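WARN no homologs supplied; continuing
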Amino acid sequence: MKFTALQISEILDGSIEGDPQASVSEVAKIEEGKSGSISFLANPKYSEFLYHTEASIVILNRDFKLEGKIPEKLTLIRVDDAYASFGALLEMYNQVKNNHLGIADSAVISDSATIGEEVYIGANVVIGEQVKIGKGVKIHPQSFIGDNVEIGEGSVIYSACQLYSETKVGKHCVIHAGVILGADGFGFAPNQENNYKKVAQIGNVIIEDHVEVGANSCIDRATLGSTIIRKGVKLDNLIQVAHNVEIGENTVIAAQTGIAGSTKIGKNCMIGGQVGIVGHIRIADGVKIAAQSGIGNSVEKENSILQGSPAIPIGDFKRAYVMFRKLPELNRLANNLKEAFDQIKNSVSNQP
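OK structure emitted
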């Protein structure tokens, strides 16, 4: 699908310098731009590429001052905030690109399921008993939607997702490829024979509105009650959320983080990649946890910033790290002092 500079400028409330009819059908980084593509310039360190890019249109800030001659076929669109405007354009482009509608012939849908208007259900999708699919939902090929699942209006379920029975997904959520919602929690009880007996997991998973779950992440159903991902949460790829965990509103978590069972995480938290969090603890609102940290106890103070394993306040961690880097030097100093002491001790013992 093609857009002209004039159409784009009207969408972004921008001003055109160049050909209003210049058309584009794809987006590209400014250093990789080619004819028929649109790019943007927000970071000054990429300014040099503006003067020899092959892109047809570039979005840039109104106050950007040209310091050379731009390519003859390049059209500029000046806006108040190039980064934000390009982001809005990408969102629009993504919506157009993914605007699939209709139900594939190979989809298997239970007669008891309720399917809303303007939906897309791709090839080989399986939808179970008593499922409720809201208006505008898109379910991409080869996904499985178990019995009694609910998916709210405007949500997108990408390919090869597995939504186990009783899972609830809110409005305008994005569930990326390979996500599993509602698999059994890791519940096993040891017996006298030193074997492990499985504890039935009969709860569910609740995903509230405007949540995004990254590819191949797993959110386990509760043993009893619900595992809850609150409104606005953003989860990266390859995240494990165990049974009965609750993640507060607008918390963001980076890839490969694991959260053990029954832990409660507050709202507006930021958790880096590869963080490990033990079970049955609470993390206060606004807490920030640096990548590869290990959280072994509750964090009661709001807006704390933690790092390390076990995690400590980030100021303490940085001071400790300075000392850690000096350990080889301190070790050499200790050895030198020991040698000097031994020499003095030997000289004294050898005196008549």
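The mean pLDDT is 94.
OK
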